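Example for reference:
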Amino acid sequence: MMQNTITTSLLLAASFLSAGEITTVPISSPAVRDLEADRPDATESPRTVDAGYFQIESSLLGYTRDRSGGESIQSWTWAETNVKYGLNESMDLQLIFAPYVREVMEAGGVRSVAEGFSDITLRLKMNMWGNDEGKTAFAVFPYVKIPSGSEVSNDKWEGGVILPWAMEICEGIGFGMQAEFAYVWDGAEYDVDFLHTAVLGFDVTDRLGLYLEYLGISGDHPYEAYASGGVTWAVGGLFQWDAGMIFGINDAAEDLNTFTGFSVKF
């Protein structure tokens, strides 16, 4: 099933690329949309990359910690990157990977370490409305996770669909929500998780932005609840720095996740 999802996504993307020459305009043209990244919050943007352009969204370093029931798990992720390419004015193709992940688990006085290349995620974002005009925007994008076979991989194919929606409340304030249905391996069998988010974003100045977010995950396991917040700093309309933190607000959630990175379109 997962292999068919990959094949379908790739064939769909290829059909748009082969349908004719992609028309692009100079990156400095007003017709090119300002940078709008999926990072740093968990709520993805429903807007796509302009046709014929690339967008790189990369975390310099991410850190996660969880302590529960006498067990401690810490992980470090270097340069987790989302490479995007605009297929047309309402669709982009995305490839997500991390060159190096290190996980350390301690339980009962025993310490184990796993490290290596991350799994690879392939996504196809399709904007339904609001890419260039209107107060709201919505997108649908299916994805599939391809196991890398490294020590940090669960060696299972996984996938799902993400449904982000965004609204401009007023100038400088935006609101977004997202629903995601994920087909995941829980260690014994496949289950479907329902991930949901809500985020408020604020333009403090022309360059500085802030966001506050709620994240929840439900499924065949205790409900996980998180609070998140962070900042963005724009350098022109096509580059921005970011940093943020996610805190677990119930026992089932991971304790802490911190990250910093950047996004650029060219």
User: Anything to note?
Assistant: Helices lie at 2-18. The chain has one domain: 2-27+44-260. The first helix runs from residue 2 to 18. Confidence is low (pLDDT under 50) at residues 1-22.
